[in-house]
Amino acid sequence: MKFMVTLFLALSISLQAQVPAPRSTQSTNTGPYWTKSGDYDYTLYDGNGNKLTNVKDLKYLSTDTLSVLDKNARDIYLLADFKNASDGSSGKASILQKNVGTNFYITNPYSFSFFVDDTARTGPFCNIEGSYIYYVSEEGSTYRLPDIRKFSNWGSNTAEKLSYTAINTYWYRDADNKEYGIIKEGKTLDYSKVTPEKDGNDMVITVSGVKTYRLPGYYTMASFVYKPVEMYTPAREETVSTGCVKGDCQNGWGKYQYDNGYYDGFWLDGMKNGYGLYRWNDTGDYIGNWANDQMEGYGVYTADNDDSIKGVFRNGQLNGIGVTKTGDKWEQGIFNDGNLESKHTFYSTGNDTGCTAGDCQDKYGRYKWSNGDSFTGFFRNGNMYIGTYKFANGDKYSGMFNNDNQYHGMGRFWFNNGAYYGGQWLNGKYSGRGYYSEKDTSPKVGQWKDGELVKSLN
Asked: Which end of the chain is more exposed for a tag (fewer CB within 10 A), N or C?
């Protein structure tokens, strides 16, 4: 009997020992990996064994390791030894960088590649303290690739897009070494042709004997902060070749010649004020409103290569609503110190009349009337705000409007017979300081009221 009990207990213990334990909820994967199919195709898995379905091949950078972007998570993977791996083989992957922006770089000791909107771009660049300043000619933009030359192996980071400027020229200060730098289209200037000069808290840069750039706030700027240069518009120091060459450059309309160009427009207390044109030699021109010698209010800067900046200026840069054109690329929206912070998309609505493109309520759009007139620009509460109105007969107005869709503020009007008015408007009429010209007659320049010249200033 004892034998039977002992046997029963032994069988019971044996049967209990065969009961399977539940699986662990912890993954047994050791990290991300890839499997290759064919010469170039592959499947990539993350560290939890999930298949990644939206990936983009990047570069090998002179190695056997393929870099890959997971476009959903914005993570960059390295597929080690992938290039020469056989069909059906597998290998380990690793994350190089997590959560990169759409503008980024990858690098290793052998090479590097830069991507704008996930597309590889090439262009001129220079190395400033281990970071590249990189110019992309296709879009007329300059980027900073931070610390790209400070990696000992593979590395990656998001790139910084510098503030927009039509001339793509930037400056920085190296306070510790008491040095400055100027970079134009990705290349440093030839400093053998450049001399600096202190002007208050600013630095003025002379290139080949001509005062060309102003670096505002230079002497209190932190090191290696990259800012757009300002074109030099000097205090008025007359020489034999410069000075007020025409009109009244104190409190009227006058033309003042500078070393780097000229200003033709209205003056107040010896400073550019109101409607006027500044032309920089071999660079471009700005026409629009001025205040206290600065581009201030509505205006248009046009570079010699036809790139342009149009909109509301403050402190010499686009601040507020505006439109930029760089080559064939247009951008419009709200800017801050030249940077586009809120983009307004411009798309066809499919309508032949009415709002035919964009947003004609509170953003940027195009409105067409059945008689052939059209307006393209910014809207506010469904009314025209700032932009260009084209008449079917060929007349055109470009500037500001009031809430009743009347010309109001700074604006320019081109008549189809060749006449022109540029200056201030009030409720649809010339009012304030303005310039009017027509064919074969002398310009009428001065103070206007209700469409009539009441005080000549030329």
From this structure: N
